[in-house]
Write a structure and sequence with these properties.
Chain A has helices at residues 6-23, 32-59, 66-98, 105-120, 123-148, 165-178, 182-189, 197-223, 231-236, 248-278, 283-303, 309-341. By secondary structure, chain A is mostly helical. Helices cover 48% and strands 13% of the residues of chain B. Chain B has helices at residues 14-24, 54-67, 76-85, 99-106, 154-164, 196-207, 217-224, 242-250, 285-315, 322-333, 339-359, 362-382, 388-401, 408-442, 460-467, 472-477; strands at 31-38, 41-48, 93-96, 110-115, 121-125, 170-177, 183-190, 237-239, 254-258, 264-267, 445-446, 449-450. Classes of the chains: A mainly alpha (349), B alpha+beta (486).
């Protein structure tokens, strides 16, 4: 049985959500209170989308024809590959800009996907177990830093005024949705969960809401209104602890771990989808080939100064939402297909 | 005479049989053939010198045989019946009918008694080959528990386990591994506790061993583990303590005892077991929890401390507070090599010293450790080759690495990986290394039991055994076995 438990899947999704928070780029003078509200609204929207999908997956087998399976595989591979490129490019750009004397954007881009391929080669169970072991460590480290940062947090800095709240809410909501790689991950992981995918969704969305609220409130109380630039590294410059003076390296380590786990999951999904499409199942060759192709593509884009971040939000939101909608509507397609072909509807035991 | 092989049956003619045996054994110098006549029937006793005790052979074989002699003669059939029913000689008796079975028995310490006119030989077990006495464990030392360790003789090891588990449910199955060595290997398990599927799988893997010789546990490991070359940690553990093996058998694990090796293999072996010690069960619960914490801390120190130190000083000095930073900077300023190079050199020298202390005789080994550790280290610091803070880091790392002997190989390798990762890429490299190693550990499983159980997949009932130790009343109620981690 090659399935993962609901808590392991939730751990992987929480890690990906933490990555999204660490990579979040606010608009100039963005109101942290509005960001918090939008984060909670986003959790609500995800609940509305993912819970019914989880119920369907647990009760009915999502049966499709061979042609539609091939199309689904191709679309999944493409979507996951695009997200993988977005995340890797964003991460390497961030690292290169914050620590230009230490890390080369080119170097990180060249090696990151191969490292992810190695981690992905451990299989879905290995990856899920890794996430479930590493997550408590990450949360513990972040909790310690949160405690160390309490001296710098002033609730008075939180500002509830916004000149154009409706537009601010819409644009912030879309930015947050644009960082939600976890939607596609959740849609792809759900059929692989051992039992009760609804538990996965419940745990992960609750953690998402709490983490997002905590992070944005903390950032708002330390920084006031958000200016341009990455919140994660900006916050790291404001830490001043008893044991560790500046926690920038710790923030970097946490972000790297989240990036590796999320990208490894996406790499696994991409290579498996490619394998299903071409009917090849040897992951030992598919994974390095996928990593090599994507790395070459990214280095080519880097050398031509093609900035993918301009399209990141639109792509990520649409891919994630499309993945979940596919899951929601798949049983309807199944019913129609079976009626056309006079077959019995397969039910789970 | 036709060509002879191991399937050739013995001839009823004694002279022919003895010629066949001598030819089959290639006239080897240690083959002993004693001819005698008993009740008018020609007989012979065949054994291998060094495998049987000549004193005990005289007492248990020749004396009873001579007691059968009287004035009357007997037919070969009557004499055979006398030998099998009237002369007890030893409780370990069997019959040999082919040259192959003769060879197998004689090399296992049996004496073969041939009688003219019989097409089989009576094999009497009189093992007397030299073996080491039961000694103290060398690597798994504990204060408050048994000081007996396994020996090289598998039969002695079986008795050490049997003495501790006096239940008919404890089973031993003997199989032979190695085409040339024919090494006796005993599979130990407790009926009702061990998963039959896991036992069948293990037996299948042992029977698939295609080696010419099996001279120790390492020969069997690649056959027991799938993908053993790609995995950092081993899913099959070793122990030299009979009490530890018994504790593992009670939990439903399977033990493998190999003739010639003073270790037992235990499978499946979980990551959390490397942090356990039999002393935990002799200490109070709160102290056992504290000891577990110390061992986990030692693991992290031994694996990652040097790498994190190099990463922090080279890539993230802003992490360190001002006083510590100034002290480290002063220490590093006076040395001629970079911190990364110093750390690599000192770590490699540490491995050289460790290897030297294992290989050298005990009397000189201690002197080498003192010379290497104190004199060379002290001289190196005073001459400015390496800095004092670095020596402190190395000292802490070396001490921490000896807390967990089960992970000695892996810790050495992981430590070097972290140093390289931290030296080249700072905390980015450290994180990458940590994720890759964790993923490697998490991907392992044996017979469907994940290596990282009960941490992941999380098992609430068993997690107390990882973080500490349940009290014995709770352990008595808890009847869980390792199969429940599947």
């Amino acid at each position: 049985m090659n399935r993962i438990s609901s808590y392991q899947a939730a751990a992987l999704l929480i890690v990906s959500r933490l990555l999204a928070l660490s990579l979040y780029l606010p608009r100039p003078h963005e109101n942290p209170a509005i960001t918090c509200v939008c984060a909670v609204l986003l959790c609500g929207l995800k609940w509305l989308l993912l819970m019914p999908a989880a119920q369907l997956v647990s009760r009915k087998r999502l049966f499709t024809s061979r042609t539609s399976a091939a199309v689904l595989s191709a679309v999944t591979a493409l979507g996951a590959a695009v997200l993988l490129i977005m995340l890797t490019e964003h991460f390497s750009a961030l690292l290169g800009s914050f620590h230009p004397e230490r890390y080369s954007r080119f170097g990180i881009t060249a090696v990151l996907l191969f490292i992810c391929a190695y981690v992905a080669s451990m299989g879905r169970q290995g990856l899920a177990r890794t996430a479930s072991i590493i997550l408590p460590v990450i949360l513990g480290v972040m909790a310690l830093i949160f405690i160390e940062m309490r001296g710098a947090m002033l609730p008075d800095r939180l500002n509830f005024f916004a000149p154009d709240p409706e537009n601010a809410v819409v644009s912030t909501f879309l930015r947050l949705l644009g960082g939600s790689v976890d939607l596609l991950l959740c849609a792809c992981l759900m059929p692989l969960i051992d039992c009760r995918p609804t538990r996965t969704v419940g745990v992960y969305l609750t953690a998402d809401a709490l983490m997002s609220l905590g992070f944005f409130l903390m950032a708002g109380s330390v920084l006031g209104s958000f200016s341009t630039g990455n919140l994660w590294f900006t916050l790291s410059c404001c830490t001043h602890g008893a044991v560790i003076d500046r926690s920038g390296a710790v923030f970097l380590a946490v972000m790297t771990v989240c990036e590796l786990l999320t990208c490894s999951a996406l790499m696994l999904i991409t290579s498996r989808a490619v394998g299903h499409f071409f009917r090849r199942t040897h992951q030992s060759t598919l994974l390095p080939v996928t990593a090599a192709v994507l790395t070459v593509l990214m280095l080519a884009m880097l050398s031509r100064n093609i900035n993918v971040q301009e399209y990141a939000e639109k792509f990520t939101s649409s891919i994630g939402t499309a993945a979940v909608m596919t899951m929601l509507f798949s049983p309807l397609y199944t019913r129609k297909y079976l009626r056309t072909n006079n077959c019995e509807y397969p039910r789970k035991a | 005479m036709n060509e002879i092989n191991e399937h050739t049956p013995l001839s009823p003619k004694l002279s022919e049989t003895l010629v066949m045996i001598t030819k089959f054994f290639g006239n080897t110098a240690d083959l002993s053939v004693m001819r005698f006549t008993l009740r008018g029937v020609k007989c012979a006793a065949v054994s291998v010198e060094g495998m049987v005790s000549s004193e005990i052979v005289g007492e248990l074989v020749y004396k009873p045989l001579m007691s059968l002699e009287n004035e009357t003669t007997a037919t070969p059939t009557e004499l055979k019946k006398l030998l099998t029913e009237n002369a007890l000689m030893s409780s370990d008796r069997t019959a040999a009918r082919t040259l192959g079975s003769c060879a197998e028995l004689v090399f296992a310490g049996f004496v073969l008694v041939f009688t003219d006119g019989a097409d089989s030989a009576e094999a009497v077990g009189i093992q007397g080959y030299p073996t080491k006495a039961v000694a103290e464990p060398t690597a798994e030392n504990d204060l408050l528990s048994s000081q007996e360790a396994f020996t090289e003789a598998v039969r002695t090891n079986i008795s050490l386990v049997r003495r501790r588990l006096r239940t008919p449910k404890l089973r031993f199955e003997l199989i032979k591994c190695g085409k040339l060595s024919g090494t006796e290997t005993a599979i130990a398990y407790i009926e009702g506790k061990t998963d039959p599927k896991m036992l069948r799988e293990l037996k299948k893997r042992l029977k698939s061993v295609e080696l010419d010789s099996v001279l120790g546990p390492a020969f069997l490991l690649p056959f027991l583990e799938k993908q053993s070359d790609k995995l950092l940690f081993s899913e099959v553990g070793t122990t030299e303590r009979p009490d530890m093996l018994c504790a593992d058998l009670i939990q439903g694990r399977i033990g493998i005892l190999i003739d010639g090796a003073p270790f037992a293999l235990v499978c499946p072996y979980l990551f959390a077991q490397g942090f356990e010690s039999i002393d935990d069960y002799a200490a109070k619960t709160y102290f056992a929890v504290f000891l577990k914490f110390i061992r986990c801390l030692s693991f992290l120190l031994a694996a990652a401390f040097p790498g994190v130190y190099v990463a922090a000083v080279n890539f993230a000095p802003e992490m360190l507070n001002m006083k510590l930073l100034l002290s480290l900077a002063a220490g590093e300023r006076s040395t001629m090599l970079s911190l990364f190079t110093e750390m690599l050199i000192v770590m490699l020298l540490l491995e050289v010293l460790r290897e030297a202390s294992i290989r050298l005789p005990h009397a000189i080994g201690t002197a080498v450790s003192i010379a290497g550790g104190l004199i060379i280290g002290d001289a190196a610091v005073k001459s400015g080759l390496i800095s004092s803070p670095l020596m402190i880091v190395v000292g802490i790392t070396a001490t921490a690495s000896y807390v967990l002997p089960a992970f000695a190989q892996q810790l050495s390798f992981i430590r070097l990986m972290f140093i390289l990762a931290g030296g080249f890429a700072g905390f980015f490299g450290i994180s990458v290394c940590a994720v890759m190693i964790t993923a490697n550990i998490c991907s392992q499983s044996l017979a469907g039991i994940p290596y990282t159980s009960p941490l992941s997949p999380f098992r609430k009932k068993r997690i107390m055994n990882v973080t500490g130790r349940k009290n014995f009343a709770a352990l008595a109620r808890d009847k869980t076995t390792v199969s429940e981690f599947r």
